[in-house]
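Q: How would the structure tokens look for this protein?
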Amino acid sequence: MTGATSGYVALLSDDGQENEVLFLEAGGLPCSVDPGLPMPIRGLRAEAYESKAAVYHNDFMSSHWAGLMPQGHVILSNVLFAPLVVDGETAGIIGLANKPSDFTDDDARIAAGFGRLAAIALKNSLAVEARNRAETELRRLAVTDPLTGLFNRRAFFATAGNEVERARRYRRALSCMMIDIDGFKAVNDKHGHDVGDAVLRRCSETAVRLLRKQDTLARLGGDELAILLPETDGDRATVLARRLAGQIAKARVPTDDGDVGFTVSIGVASWSSDDTDLAPALKRADDALYAAKKAGGGRVGSKASAPGPS
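A: Here is the predicted structure in token form.
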């Protein structure tokens, strides 16, 4: 539209100090400058930024601004800069160069108009990105426990339904664990809820490190955690539970009164093809957990499979 043969489009960096090139066309002229390098806001383009208006110069290589060009930059016989203004602030710039004849005020008006259109498109794009980020965050919050970052109860049982269906269809093993922190109320009473929260997080972090990507760890409520173990029979789940209990017993949470250690009781059970969903297996795991706590805590109880017929 203007007759320029070279040009670029750049956006202001997050810190507001430089431009980041989105598009560059050298017009067939030699240019060895890396377009990925930041572009400082200085010279004639700084005037476009500050004035929020298109500016141009028709003998650029003879101007004092030419000395600011990096080595290897394409020769610029003339230049025109038009700002991208979003909500009253310059968010980027369009640079045009090397028109066979001089740039004119009409070219400046054309470039400024295009800049306004580009700014509207940019604003809409930013709005869409912000909406998408908000929607993604809402979806994450809907399935995440805010304290530990683990899945919440809703996400756990949704995953459990899928895993039970998969285990039934392909005749695969499926086990689960119920985990409870021993003496958790006493920790809160003695050290405060901030330390109790830290104990929950440390317990969760330790468990995450020992689990596979396909395993599901969730906080069901309070200090009660649950783990879903696809492709895992009761014996292997019990071995993992003992290892997990041992690692958690080594964990420490620093406090003003010294480090606090803690233990967990774990109940293990396996899903049976006779079970319509995971609830019976979780009940068996919960019973095994209760037995482990009754025996003194820091233990693993196991009801690896469903009880057989009497």
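The mean pLDDT is 89.

The helical segments are 43-51, 105-143, 153-170, 184-191, 193-210, 234-250, 279-294.

Upvote if useful.
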